[in-house]
Automatic annotation (TrEMBL):
Localization per record: Cell inner membrane
UniProt organism field: Raoultibacter timonensis
Major site of localization recorded for this protein: membrane
Membrane topology value: Multi-pass membrane protein
Keyword set includes Transmembrane: yes
Keyword Membrane part of the UniProt annotation: yes
InterPro entries assigned to the protein according to its UniProt record, in alphabetical order: MFS, MFS_dom, MFS_trans_sf
The protein's name in its UniProt record: MFS transporter
Domain Major facilitator superfamily (MFS) profile: 13-399
Residue stretches spanning the membrane: 12-29, 49-67, 79-98, 104-129, 141-163, 169-189, 217-237, 257-277, 284-303, 309-328, 340-367, 373-396
Length: 408
């Protein structure tokens, strides 16, 4: 592909794409702050309500195996449009759902959109910024699209709720925002169709499961699954926990405290990026991140004082969000060829989705059966320990290779 292209201004297009990602995330994260209202409306317990987010992970796991092939048919801009259509259906089907089963189906549809968007974003950045040396900043900004949308929803949910009178009003507002985003995507994001289709022509040849052919790749996938389990329990259940009599926060305060994790998560991602650029033994860094992630899992629901909870929210954000950058950086040591690294990178989301699927349902079931939120620390600690062991084994197998390669 030549430097001359019919694609529009790279940064203007990118800003619009990032906004679309944030709009999608606003709709995607409307459930956690609404969990209490949804449980009351659908007359369900925490265990069943846990599937409101886990259904998205199920969908993401399924769609991960075919997004490459789909992208070769409709292109990355088409994937972005498909993601927004899925989120519009998520909101529409959800607000009209006559029962909890249909509501869970609406979340499954939203999860499909999440899979489309996760594939479209990096591809569009590659298309817009043809010089690889120019992609660092846009890739770093793009990594914050979920955080941006989550922050907006958590801090605006109470206002929208009071203005509209119920959780259904929040769903209608999200639907309107997504429809506006869909129109902007169709008419304002300028991507030359011939260029995008030429770039993704071979994308369907890379299958995610092709990366699961070595012990090293399996170790990283399992670590990602363990991280996703710990992170998903907090993101799905924290607003509900903070509004229980144990903690005693009102809805606005609970959502604001929950959003602290998103802010400190961005800080953690930036910090670990600096550490990874300075330390040659990157597998050792991965071990350190899993130690901290395990600590973050254990402390999530054992404190009840509001001051202590704020500290926990800060630490959960810092200690969990350092894991994915470390995983992505260590993928290069799991395989010794560029093609092999690409396969490992393609396989990592499988671990992330599998870890997210059972997280909230298991946590909810434990709270329901024991009556204790603190008991959730047990499975979180066990899962963290599994991830830690796998990271240590990976360090033993790949640490020396990583240090030698960077020394050269």
């Amino acid at each position: 592909m030549g430097e001359k292209s019919k694609t529009g201004n790279a940064w203007l297009n990118f800003i619009l794409i990032f906004i679309m990602g944030a709009i999608f995330a606003i709709g995607f994260f409307k459930v956690p702050p609404a969990m209490g209202s949804l449980m009351e409306y659908f007359q369900c317990g925490l265990g069943e309500a846990g599937w409101f987010m886990s259904a998205c992970s199920v969908a993401g796991t399924i769609i991960a195996f075919v997004t490459g092939a789909i992208q070769t048919k409709i292109g990355p801009k088409g994937m972005l449009i498909a993601a927004l259509v899925c989120m519009a259906l998520d909101s529409l089907v959800g607000v009209l759902a006559p029962n909890v089963e249909v509501f869970i189906i609406s979340r499954f549809i939203g999860g499909l959109g999440n899979g489309f968007l996760a594939t479209a974003g990096p591809t569009l950045i590659t298309l817009l910024f043809k010089d690889p040396s120019k992609r660092g900043i846009p890739n770093s900004i793009w990594a914050c699209w979920t955080a941006a949308g989550s922050l907006i929803m958590l801090n605006s949910y109470a206002f929208i709720l009071s203005a509209t009178g119920g959780w259904q009003g929040v769903w209608w507002v999200c639907l309107a925002i997504v429809v506006i985003g869909l129109l902007l995507t169709v008419f304002c994001i300028r991507i030359d169709h011939a260029e995008e289709m030429a770039m993704v022509a071979a994308g369907g040849d890379v299958k995610p499961w092709a990366g699961l052919t070595s012990l090293n790749s399996w170790l990283l996938v399992i670590v990602f699954a363990c991280f996703a389990f710990i992170f998903s329990v907090w993101s799905a259940m924290a607003p509900t926990y903070l509004q229980t009599p144990l903690v005693g926060m009102d809805m606005a305060a609970a959502n604001s405290v929950s959003s602290i994790t998103t802010v400190t998560g961005i800080v953690g991602s930036l910090i670990i990026g600096v550490v990874l650029s300075k330390v040659k033994n990157q597998p050792l860094v991965l071990v350190g991140t899993m130690v901290l992630c395990t600590v973050a899992g254990i402390i999530q629901f054992i404190f009840t004082g509001q001051a202590a909870i704020i500290v926990v929210a800060v630490l959960v954000g810092l200690f969990t969000n350092i894991v994915p950058p470390a995983l992505f950086s260590n993928a290069q040591w799991a395989a010794k060829t560029p093609a092999g690294v690409a396969l490992v990178m393609a396989a990592l989301p499988i671990g992330s989705n599998f870890g997210g699927i059972p997280a909230a349902p298991i946590a909810g079931a434990i709270v329901e059966s024991t009556g204790s939120w603190a008991m959730v620390a047990a499975p979180l600690g066990i899962v963290g320990a599994i991830g830690l062991v796998c990271s240590i084994v990976f360090m033993v197998r790949c640490g020396k290779y990583a240090v030698e390669s960077q020394s050269k």
